[in-house]
Structure formats: C-alpha cells, structure tokens
Amino acid sequence: MEKNHSTLDELDFAILSCLQKDGRMSFTVIADQLKVSVGTARTRLNRLIDEGIINIVGRVDPDKVGFQVYAHIAVYVRPATLKESVAQEIAKMPEVSFLASTSGDYDLEVDVMCPTNNHLVEFVNEISKIDGIYQTKTTLYFKVYKYAQPDLNLLK
Prior knowledge:
Keywords: DNA-binding, Transcription, Transcription regulation. The chain is an alpha+beta fold and 156 residues long. It has helices spanning 10-21, 27-34, 38-50, 83-91, 117-127; strands at 69-77, 96-101, 108-114, 133-141.
C-alpha cells in the first residue's frame, strides 16, 4: 500500500526526523525523545519500513571512500519516444546517484560519482552508445558544499 505525505501524521514525521539525525537511533531513544512507548515507536517505524516510506541504510561520504569525481550530465534523447528506455538503461549503471526526466533544454539529468576522471570519460563514452542518445553535456562539480536528505520541516 502506497502512502503519500498527507496520510502521515505528526508522530510519523517525528520518527523520520529522529532517524535522519541518527539512523542508528534505538527504539528506546526514539520513544524517550517523542514521549511515546517503545512499542509504539517500534510499530510505527516497522510500518514506515513496510510501506517503503523509509529505508535504513548506511550513508557513505563519497569523498572519504575514494569517489573523487562528481559530475552532472545533461542527456539529449531523440526520438523522444526512447526517453523511458534510455532512462532505464542509465538507471542500471552503478555510477549514477541521481537520474530524472526534465522539462528544460535536455531530456534527462544524470548525476554520477566516479573514482577518477578516466572512469568518468569511460562512463560518458558508454552511455553515448545507448540507442536514442544523440548528445551529452558534462559539467564537473569541483566541490560539493551540501549533500543531504530533504528537510522534513519544509512539509509543515
């Protein structure tokens, strides 16, 4: 069952906020901070996981583990009917950290993380072979100032 944010209540958002601050926070600490029982915290969090609203993962600092090259790639697709299949092919590639269809000058926006410039060149060469891609424009990110999850307080 899929939920949208309007069906989440204040407690759901509070639990999500706690876990954004510390993904390893225990049910006991969450319950104490939110002034609910441990059982309530556990039940709510398990429901959020079951419904796919949250996934508990370890978040890596890409720079500290060896990803030295970040890039934005604008992808132009022709004919437009191939956009979906092109996006599905790009989505399979492990370098891709963000992929979206756009309404701007280009068709797909792709952000990638690569260990080296040579790896980035190989990646761009590889996606350029995908049927339907007729042009790419790559912009290197020299320095990433913020890499974060969305601030749930913006929904209040």
